[in-house]
Amino acid sequence: MKSSLDAVKRAYADEVGAAANVTYQPIIEAFAAVPRERFLFAGPWRLPLPATSGVEETPDDDPRHIYVDRLVTLDEAKNLNNGVPSFWAGLFEHLKPRPGERVIHAGAGTGYYSAILAHLVGSGGSVLAIEYEPHLAAHAARAFADQPNVEVVQGDALTRAHGEADVIVASAGLDVVPLPWVGLLRDGGRLLVPLTAPAPRFGDRIGGGAMLLVTRRGPLYDARFVSGTFIYHFMGTRSPAASQRLAAAFADASAAPVIASLRLDDPPDESAWLVGDGWWLSKAAV
Question: Confidence class of residue 253 from pLDDT cuts 50, 70 and 90?
Fold first, then answer.
């Protein structure tokens, strides 16, 4: 006898939470509550096989098949997928979105992780979900039609993001610290973005690097890397020069890069790990 969908979702959420070492229980509850199938295209679904180039297709459109800690393909031609749940659960553990907060999600895809964020901030909070690809944004907008605390917009997230935010998270890789988003952070606000250089072995759409967490403390910004990543390129501002600088900084690190702060005003000093236009990442605390 098949388990009920609710039981499958609960087991899935517990598995995801354990794999990501989640201690913030609301994250596990969000994964148990949000219907993943609503934020995917219609099944059967294609699930890339871990550590191979193969793909497994589900036998039918029973949603039980996609409550697994696996990627689900969104657009095979563009190598777009609905990311690994435990990876994002682990990142949300660093952000700990709270009820009533405002979140901006850049690179929302078809909306699944935006929905997790919306569950975490509750009806008293809100999510601005921004997606570059029109067909993904259209699906997300339909999926959120009955959720007034979620706004879906299509376009470049660097220009479409607006309003003060407590949490900003990007699901695509940048080669610079996005100052327009830093400027939207409220005091105590958290920005989580993948800083990625090209990774040619994965093709021209994928980059490799690390997830940067920036936390605003009044006029100062703490910063640290919380995870490595390989992820789809952000389709807004990227440049060969910035990508080369970032690749060189990662290559020069004898181990995982250790940084402690984002600086916006001071001129770079010997603690600088990476210098951009109007910003630099420092290995020293502020």
Answer: low
